[in-house]
């Protein structure tokens, strides 16, 4: 069921060849204004970020493709080995139509990918204060509200593996199968 609906979509680890396209997407105004770091990133900054991550013990940054074309990214960062969690984030090309559910597909595939890692018990995300609709979307998808981070001016949400396993079947039917 999932495989047929998502057959043209893939998450694959980013590589050096993806960096220019991902940087263009990351620097789109609508994406930047939804991030904690709102500044435009230079190619050198982006490349150094990639080198640091690719040499780390926790490299889970993915290109999101539709029919082999990069249309977004999903990533995990700041892994806490003791508590067995990390932060996740997504962005997609904002020039694409929103009625195609690219963001929802990306989020679904990323959560599936991250929870397939045995060392992850739960995930956290940061949603900037003004992104109320995003916060509500994540809450509908099984996240729980933890706290407001005053320093970064963002909401911190959490989803456990058990909550995701319960919620994903409902999301799959209600968001994708019914509304094809």
Q: Which descriptors would you attach to this protein?
A:
180 residues; alpha+beta; seven-stranded mixed beta sheet; 7 strands
In short:
With 180 residues, the protein is of the alpha+beta class.
Tell me what the structure shows.
The chain has 7 helices and 7 strands, in the order H-E-H-H-H-E-E-E-H-E-H-E-E-H. With 180 residues, the chain is α+β, with helices and mostly antiparallel strands. Strands 1-2-3-4-5-7-6 form a 7-stranded mixed β-sheet, sandwiched between helices. Helix 5 (102-115) links the parallel strand 4 (85-92) and strand 5 (122-128). Helix 5 runs antiparallel to helix 7 (161-177). The chain is globular and about 40 Å long. The mean pLDDT is 92.
The percent of residues in helical segments reads 25-40%
Q: What's the oligomerization state?
A: single chain
Global mean pLDDT: 92
Order of helices and strands: HEHHHEEEHEHEEH
Largest sheet: 7 strands, mixed
The proportion of residues in beta strands is 25-35%
Give me the secondary-structure category.
alpha+beta
| Radius of gyration over all CA atoms, rounded | 16 Å
Distance between the termini: 12 Å
Unreliable sequence segments: none
Strand neighbour order, sheet with most strands: 1-2-3-4-5-7-6
| Number of DSSP helical runs | 7
Q: Which shape, going by the Cα principal axes?
A: globular
Number of strands: 7
